[in-house]
């Protein structure tokens, strides 16, 4: 298996046309690979990918697949997610002797920037801490006619009353499962909690469903995220069996949770998972620096410096609100900074839990300590550090995770599910 590290996106460019074509590009690349047309597939890769994943590598990869799994049969499902400027496609495929996930990452220039072959035990393999016989799932719709979002409600069986969790996504155009590579952290959390008697509501993010429509207007955290969370809370509050409502926000979603709780009295508690205390652009800059130290050449380091200089100007408030910054505008990041979750939490009188993975390189232990130092006198705020878990609360074997870990087939760790359940059980 060959892993290719994504290259740098220098500055925001218009990607609407390329995004529309990217699935067709990914499908063509995969079919060329499976037919053995390696030179044509190689031409579809980015410059760095061509160097790191050669025609010989492709040929050996396909030979290993055929030797271990027999002939390719068909693709039975496809998943899509957008992660910080890259579009990720997961093609779930059946071979004669097993199942293979092909993960293909398309960059903003319409090139294949990563190709990961991931064998799976079976379609939709689930961790041992989940018992699917203990809950049901129902399709739901969040929002009004203009912004209807498809979602799912996971409900424990044989209970007349139960607490309900609403999951809030991190940044990016994410589906209801917060799919990252071959992994589905939100589904793991939902099914794990429902196995233990907690209902969970999750839905496709507005940027995932209406990405093209939203690209025609100035981005706003209010209309892209907060409105939908408010709609979800209002829906949950009308369900007779729901005993209490908890918001569980991941990453940027953790900054949203206190804002919604301050506005909506139906929220009974909030959880911040892997939420940075730093400003959003500061997180992006630090993340780029960390990744560059691991993977980038000297030339790429020079390119990164140009990007960081530009992002720093936005961080310092030196760009006009309408100036393009990555896939948004400077004003979008100014709006996020104004949320100020710490000051909002200080004014809440509901229970708050702050969870942090010890191996997370995006939201770090320093962020966690900032929350602790600012909120330790608040009797309603609780803290828990989970060692060896990454940004998605999946276990890693190193001191700090890397982007490659996200493309390994893994599950949310049982420790995270148990921590959530124990805390919810106390405050329900």
Automatic annotation (TrEMBL):
Keywords from the UniProt entry: Aminopeptidase, Hydrolase, Protease
Keyword ATP-binding recorded: no
Residues of the Serine aminopeptidase S33 domain: 187-286
InterPro entries registered for this protein in UniProt: AB_hydrolase_Est10, AB_hydrolase_fold, Hydrolase_4
Name of this protein: Dipeptidyl aminopeptidase/acylaminoacyl-peptidase-like protein
A GO molecular-function descriptor: carboxylic ester hydrolase activity
Pfam families: Hydrolase_4
Keyword Hydrolase: yes
């Amino acid at each position: 298996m060959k892993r290719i590290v994504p290259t740098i996106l220098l500055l925001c460019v218009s990607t609407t046309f390329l995004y529309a074509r990217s699935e067709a590009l990914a499908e063509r690349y995969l079919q060329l690979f499976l037919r053995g047309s390696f030179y044509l597939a190689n031409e579809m890769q980015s410059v760095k990918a061509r160097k790191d994943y050669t025609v010989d590598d492709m040929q050996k990869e396909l030979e290993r697949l055929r030797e271990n799994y027999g002939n390719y049969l068909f693709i039975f499902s496809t998943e899509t997610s957008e992660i910080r400027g890259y579009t990720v496609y997961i093609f779930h495929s059946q071979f004669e002797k097993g199942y293979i996930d092909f993960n293909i990452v398309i960059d903003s220039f319409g090139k294949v920037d990563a190709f990961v072959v991931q064998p799976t035990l079976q379609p939709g393999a689930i961790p041992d801490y989940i018992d699917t016989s203990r809950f049901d799932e129902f399709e739901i719709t969040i929002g009004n006619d203009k912004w209807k979002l498809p979602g799912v409600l996971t409900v424990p069986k044989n209970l007349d009353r139960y607490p309900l969790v609403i999951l809030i996504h991190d940044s990016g155009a994410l589906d209801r499962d917060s799919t990252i590579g071959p992994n589905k952290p939100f589904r793991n959390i939902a099914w794990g909690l429902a196995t233990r008697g907690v209902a969970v509501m999750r839905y496709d993010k507005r940027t995932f469903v209406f990405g093209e429509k939203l690209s025609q207007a100035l981005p706003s955290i209010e209309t892209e995220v907060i409105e939908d969370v408010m709609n979800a809370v209002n829906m949950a509050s009308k369900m007779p069996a729901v005993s209490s409502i908890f918001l569980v926000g991941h990453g940027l979603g953790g900054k949203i949770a206190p804002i919604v709780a301050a506005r909506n009295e139906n929220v009974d508690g909030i959880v911040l998972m892997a939420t940075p205390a730093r400003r959003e652009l500061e997180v992006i800059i630090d993340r780029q620096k960390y990744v560059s130290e691991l993977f980038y050449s000297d030339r790429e380091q020079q390119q990164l410096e140009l990007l960081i200089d530009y992002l720093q100007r936005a961080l310092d408030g030196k760009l006009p609100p309408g100036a393009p910054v990555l896939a948004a505008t400077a004003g979008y990041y100014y709006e996020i900074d104004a949320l100020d979750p710490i000051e909002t939490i200080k004014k809440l009188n509901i229970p708050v839990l702050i969870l942090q993975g010890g191996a997370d390189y995006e939201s770090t232990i320093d962020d966690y300590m900032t929350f602790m130092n600012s909120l330790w006198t608040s009797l309603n705020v609780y803290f828990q550090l989970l060692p060896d878990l990454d940004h998605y609360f999946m276990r890693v074997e190193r001191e700090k995770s890397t982007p490659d870990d996200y493309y390994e087939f893994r599950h949310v760790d049982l420790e995270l599910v148990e921590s959530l359940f124990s805390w919810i059980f106390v405050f329900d």
